[in-house]
């Protein structure tokens, strides 16, 4: 028996893996990353850079560039996300008004911008100017009458259908991942799941364009959730330019967490709320340095958006509000025909929305009007109160007044709009177009809140001697502010949908500037969460994740069952034995056959099949790549070459083919638990360490394996759910 290295005339057998080759360390699509391994790789990379920085000035400069690369990426994300948000806002404003008319002096102006430039606009008729013409005025030279109304009605529907058809066609042909809100998928990606293409360049381009189209079409959806997706696409793009992030999936997710914060920042004009939203709702791994970088990215994005000033009022949002998430339809008949579904829902929305002024206008403008307090200069129907001609108070201290006919008209119009918005929103989400749930949710809550506020206001005016009003509402005082009720209602409805608490309150007071109203907002957020939790613990994000069966372990879920690791591990009794590799007794052909006949993501490596003493763990993808590259780059490697994972090659008979050393791809410290470890502990380990799998041993002997999907199946089974229905296919 001779040593294989001596047989080939060399004292040391070459390990071809000493030099990296393409795709090692990467993951296949729809697989979960190994957080511990990514952290270890980044630590090794940082240690190497620190060591080299002492060798020369150039290496020291390179180490500084590496240290600052994170801040550079944050700056670029903030600039691009803010710019795209500003362009989207300007385009939506113009295309929404295009459904009703056009500016003759400059067709690219919206209605408001057109009348800004006019010298003939008066304050009372600030929405009317000769430069802006409705389609009936432009085409048939009529502004009033039945024929003008019908023509404007028809063109409103036609424009809406054109926008929606173009949007769904672009999504279907060029970027299927551009549909929906994106936040549930981003939340899953940040937990370590790989969905290739979801944050790609085509998705970024198509989502940006189609987001403008669908919001302009008048569908009951918002742009805020999709803006988070757009910002994360920006983060993924800039991450690919720096090897520090492009070659490490764990580090890439730190960038994506910060990008999500920037997305919320430009969606709501709320940089602090964006950071809290990323921390509370989206991120899975959020170290302290990511907190600071998230804040920086959100700040740059907000500053960029404000510099663009899309609304011309130095604010970051049109009024103060809105944001995200969707359902994807799975079993309905219309869901099989996505283009037809979008056309039908758009047509129904446009036909019903046009006659009601509160559904015809954009949802953000509606919420702005509902939030506003009624000053002396307000011309809205909601402010049509009967004034006392003898009132001598200043205009900013108007007392409660009896409602006029305009208020009563607005009340029943709002009631109809509320019912319509609830029903149409249910059918709008799940369509194959970009869509967010924040704005529709806030609109529903704001409408309900405003109506309740007006009702309480009139009760206080007419019955100020009732016990509930007597001690704090005297006659002639300004006791009730209906706009505040609308704001609290919007926060409550959104909190019930998303189960957000802290980040919701911060976003709301950043939107409104109403820091003094933080107490009612906090009460609304907490109460809405309690009420919603009584119907089910899942928010819209978690429900969407479970609907699509993504392998996501929610840290909010509790596991209190008294099961053990041996109850969950595979193989179980009656099943085939665990597929393993031996440290030095299998050939290349044996390994290739094992890979071909199974679909496992990796294989435990043991001393021998008799002893089953655990040595380490080898990933499937890296085995495939290693063998493929060895055949190409290392002479003498054939099908019957011995594969070994030890430091020294095994002793082989003379004239044996060249052995293949694969120790470098072996994880020598796989996470293990004993067979009597409580599953409560195992679940906690999977959550906090982000494991893909852990091995089950007894006294060092391999018994089985538990994967993340095994944990999810077991948790579903313990909750009396179908364990297979939640698995992503």
Automatic annotation (TrEMBL):
Primary location? membrane
Q: Does the keyword RNA-binding apply?
A: no
> Which is one Gene Ontology cellular component term of this protein?
Golgi apparatus
The record's listing under CDD domains reads: CBS_pair_voltage-gated_CLC_euk_bac, ClC_3_like
Keyword Transmembrane among record annotations: yes
Q: How does it sit in the membrane?
A: Multi-pass membrane protein
Q: Name one Pfam family in it.
A: Voltage_CLC
| GO molecular function (one) | voltage-gated chloride channel activity
| Position of the signal peptide | none
Q: What SUPFAM superfamilies has UniProt attached to this entry? A: CBS-domain pair, Clc chloride channel
Family, according to the entry, reads as follows: Belongs to the chloride channel (TC 2.A.49) family.
Which PANTHER family does this UniProt record tie to the protein? CHLORIDE CHANNEL PROTEIN, H(+)_CL(-) EXCHANGE TRANSPORTER 4
The protein here is known as Chloride channel protein
- What is the species listed in this Swiss-Prot or TrEMBL entry? Phasianus colchicus
